[in-house]
Specification:
83 residues
Length: 83
């Protein structure tokens, strides 16, 4: 192999590692978002575990809007998503 080919392969490996790390971060924030929606859908029984001061942060990190949150809550309540 030529040196330039090794550099290209190393660059591809770094790019894939970055991509995998970003996917992990996104999935972590998605889990937090759906956990938040699930707790809201459960109603008053779970109200003590909900920290509404974190709502904006959770939505921003997951890349979601308040409308997406409302849809997720309705999906949990209707049984489309598991609680």
């Amino acid at each position: 192999m030529k040196i330039s080919e090794n550099r290209r392969l190393r660059g591809e490996k770094k790019a894939m590692a970055r991509h995998e790390h970003q996917q992990f971060q996104n999935s972590r924030h998605e889990k937090k978002f759906y956990e938040f929606a699930r707790l809201i859908a459960q109603g008053e029984s779970a109200a003590g575990r909900i920290d509404f001061t974190q709502q904006d942060t959770i939505l921003k990190q997951a890349g979601k809007t308040v409308a997406d949150l409302q849809e997720a809550v309705e999906a949990f309540r209707s049984g489309e998503l598991e609680i």
